[in-house]
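Service request form, structural biology core

Requester: graduate student, group of Dr. S.
Request type: structure prediction, single chain
Budget code: on file
Notes: please return the result as structure tokens.

Sequence provided:
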Amino acid sequence: MNRPHIMLVAAASVAVANIAIAAPTAPGNKLEASNPFARESSLPFNYPAWDKIRNEHFAPAYAEGMRQQAAEMEAIANNKAAPTFDNTIVAMEKSGRLLNRVSGAFGTLSGSYTNDTLIALGKEMAPKLSQHGDAIRLNDKLFKRIETLYNKRASLKLDAESTYLLERYYDDFVRAGAKLSAADKAKLKDFNSQLAALQTQFAQNVLKESNASALVVDSRAELAGMSDKAIDAAAVEAKKRGLDGKFVIPVVNTTQQASLAVLTNRTTREKLLAASMARGSRGGEFDNRDVVLKIVKLRAERAQLLGHPNFASYHLEDQTAQTTTAVNSLLAELAKPAVNNARKEAAEIQKMIDAEKGGFQAAAHDWAFYSDKVRAQRYAFDAGQLRPYFELNRVLIDGVFFAATKEYGITFKERKDLPGYNEDVRMFDVFDVDGKQLAIFTFDPYARSNKRGGAWANAWVAQSSLLGTKPVIANNLNIPKPAAGEPTLLTYDEVRTTFHEFGHALHGMFSDVKYPRFSGSRVPRDYVEFPSQVNEMWMAWPEVLANYAKHYETGAPMPKELLDKVQASQQFNEGFRTTEYLAAALLDQAWHQLTPQQIPTDVLAFEAEALKKAGVDFALVPPRYRTTYFSHTFAGGYSAGYYGYLWAEKLDADTVNWFKENGGLTRKNGDHFRKTLLSRGGTLDAMQMYRNFRGKDAVIQPLLERRGLTGN
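Core staff response, request fulfilled:
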């Protein structure tokens, strides 16, 4: 089945890596009273006052927020009293409330509703925030207090969560360079500052290039195969861009584009995929090739400074995988059978082309179009037949929320009184089993030209009993918005993504931890996708599907024969999907397992050689992301970590088996999953947490069976 590759973003994070920042505002606030960041939001659960926040509020709030946290950290470091857990670790956990507010809001708008002013400010702030973080993590006095406590932790009589927090702080500071010499710390600060600026530049280039790379055509005939409504929308998009009389298909962040599955004009398909794959590598102001080389070199140099042979080694040490050997082994084990499956699928596609007397060899831009034809022939249905049964509101309310109520007993009530940064954002109060409000959930489903691609979850407010904060969790999707008055009908993959992202939301909403450092999804990157992938199982669970998969016009349930065909085709095209994902994951590792001396000069040549070396250089299946628009690894939090989706899927597939073995969608199962795993955040070793839930380690066989990789 198709596994979405979705970026999780913690909007509350700033350059101070792994330092949770939330506490009452420090005294001496120099912000003007009219600035909405000057005080806590008065809205429920500290929900952001989007109706009051303006571009001009961010810069002064950032400056004051950094000043306040710097002062708080200096006070901790210079405290004349002997270090205690409360006056050092807890005090750090409580620092920087203002910086948390502004960075959370800025991160949300930068991803979901940006503008030129915010883009410029983001570029300006990235190195400043990096320097601010370095000033904290590389503060000798502060680290000595942490180290003193760490060395005598066994005698401090702390509870398990507090002990683990102390250990994580110590590790965080050491990994950030706290033990380096003064000269090396200066080098590290320079590396960090440059990387912050370059990663921001990469992300902004990707966004701008995606808008610039939209396919422009002159006639409706060139868009044959698309629905009349979709072609009309392309005309409207063209008009917005000052191209009256033409038609525009925007390019989304992945290599493959949805329209490739329906466009009958092969030349148009070829142009669309070419535009997608050329992003960031064709010269001009958005070209990311030089940016990539600088990022990779700096990361490698930084890793060596910190005692590791390469960046991947440095990153993985703090993940559940731990070593490059473990990651390389997993990816290599799956590469050959995945490509073998893809080649078999390609042969079926070629047969279909030959049967139609197409007279050409299949190419990458033909795959989606002809694989749908093969599916239709083999299973007597095409993916388009499903969309009338997947209306967005029904999927959300009668599918996603329904499953959560059945599994966990939580309920939802939409509210219209809270402000949104855009009219498309919806807000829901979430109530626990006892009727008390648990969280606020927000849902932003539609694509926009000023919204980055993909889908993600983030915490506007993170849960913490130490601070008395309750969660406000957001989901973002990128579903094309239909014309006014038209229903939003989803593809099967978009339905899956909706369930997936809500899995992240559950992780945040069910968080029941003391310290903000451990709240919700603040877990290792290669573990964070696991709970969200598990939540995907409910989309096709018979009881859930029957509740939401109803025709948007008639209300008729999806016919059983259509559902049976969907279920029968679950492994269809899995060779393609696994191969395109593996190609991207292998590229991520190839770039980040280089030493500084091994950095190439030609990005595309290195990419081609890396794919060939890994055995995934199959032209019909390009990587899900090519290097120059691979935001996960060069701008997001998945650098040397894109393998994590597959790593987490091993746990997911094993967990799905557990649910099935124990009766499926029941409160008993949900309560166990919530108690042992979803509520625990990052309060203990991730794999121990999994064993506490499952009773044993995960096995890989369910994953291999799911992806059709047995017997290859």
